[in-house]
Design goal:
Layout lengths: L1 H13 L15 H11 L5 H14 L2 H13 L2 H6 L3 H7 L4 H18 L7 H9 L6 H5 L4 H13 L2 H5 L3 H7 L3 H6 L5 H10 L6 H14 L2 H13 L2 H6 L5 H7 L4 H17 L8 H11 L3 H5 L4 H12 L3 H4 L2 H11 L5
Helix pairs in contact: 2-3, 4-6, 7-8, 7-10, 10-12, 14-15, 16-18, 19-20, 19-22, 22-24
């Protein structure tokens, strides 16, 4: 879920100057700003810019909109091209860090409560969302009205842990009026990725590529599939073809998975193995250690998949007899039936 909130804010930035279209009670008009936007970027659609106005003016603080709009009108196109964050920083300076931090803390209270291991604290979550590559996240959130931030927090708190793991925070964004953020930043589709793969000679049949991609799009966590697709789309054919093992993008996508969920599945799997150990010498700890040692990177791979996929696999395994659990074919059948595609 953390990844979704970060991407939602980045979606705002990816829209470039079009954000300044929001027509609040003060600041430049939509027409003026969108004319400037079109002059600075010929690829920007003037009518589309105007259509965003009503949506943005409803969610941005008036003072943040005015700062962003005024800055856009005052600076030259050349300056803004070289200093893409300048006007956003002007808007963030008018935001409320207190309100933004309150939202993050409320989200993290929910996130920590959903962690079944008990090892992920609210403070760790806050640190994750406000440090490193996310050190400006609270400043970015600060430009939104209190009513919007409170709406998102209330919605997240009312969602189940299972739904949040499946990306229901996106529904919260939409419900609270952040439609642009939740719909415009959807990431590459299977069609996009397969077009790139065929173009690069990594696949020769578009139909087969699409049929192979679709199950992964259904089973992978949304943030993982987006990261995977972005890697294919952003790298050149030369770079992709130079990847001898063919797993560069999958390794990159694994960074967006849930190691907590991956480790939980291994624990559940080992419960079954210990239960079925006739010798009575296999302990839960030994099983987990052996699994992680023999299956290097397995936890990270498992964590790429949605919780619903992992829960399905565990339920399937628990429904097997010990004899069936010892049969690789039965395990493979559970994997295929649930959409857990791991080498």
């Amino acid at each position: 879920m953390k990844r979704f909130f970060i991407l939602s804010l980045l979606a705002l930035f990816s829209l470039g100057l079009a954000v300044a279209c929001g027509g609040g009670s003060s600041g430049p008009s939509c027409e003026d700003v969108c004319t400037k936007v079109s002059e600075c970027d010929s690829t920007e659609d003037y009518n589309e810019c105007l259509s965003m106005c009503d949506m943005f003016k409803e969610v941005m603080r008036d003072e943040a909109y005015q700062a962003l709009g005024d800055c856009t009108m005052e600076q030259t196109c050349a300056f803004m091209e070289e200093n893409g964050d300048y006007c956003f920083e002007a808007a963030m300076a008018e935001g409320s860090l207190t309100a933004a931090r309150s939202l993050i803390e409320r989200i993290c209270t929910t996130m920590a409560a959903c962690d079944t291991t008990g090892n992920y604290t609210q403070q760790q979550c806050v640190d994750d969302m406000t440090s490193g590559e996310n050190d400006d996240l609270d400043s970015a959130m600060s430009i939104f009205k209190d009513s919007v931030l409170d709406c998102v927090a209330d919605c997240v708190e009312n969602e189940s842990c299972t739904d949040l793991a499946e990306g229901s925070a996106q529904d919260c964004m939409t419900t609270c009026g952040l439609v642009v953020f939740s719909s415009d930043f959807s990431g590459p589709t299977c069609e996009d990725v397969c077009n790139k793969m065929v173009e690069c000679g990594l696949d020769t049949d578009m139909t087969e590529c699409l049929s192979g991609c679709a199950p992964f799009e259904d089973s992978l966590r949304p943030e993982v599939f987006t990261e995977l697709g972005d890697c294919f789309m952003e790298n050149t054919c030369e770079t992709l073809n130079a990847d001898e093992d063919g797993d560069m993008c999958f390794r990159q996508a694994m960074t967006q998975g849930s190691t907590t969920a991956g480790a939980a599945l291994v624990d559940d799997l080992c419960v079954k193995y210990v239960e079925c150990d006739d010798s009575g010498t296999l302990t839960q700890e030994d099983c987990v250690s052996q699994f992680t040692a023999e299956q290097e990177g397995a936890i990270a791979q498992i964590g790429m998949f949605k919780d619903s996929v992992l829960d399905c696999f565990v339920d399937c395994i628990n429904g097997l007899t010990c004899a069936e659990a010892a049969d690789d074919n039965s395990m493979d059948a559970c994997s295929q039936d649930c959409g857990l595609f791991i080498d």
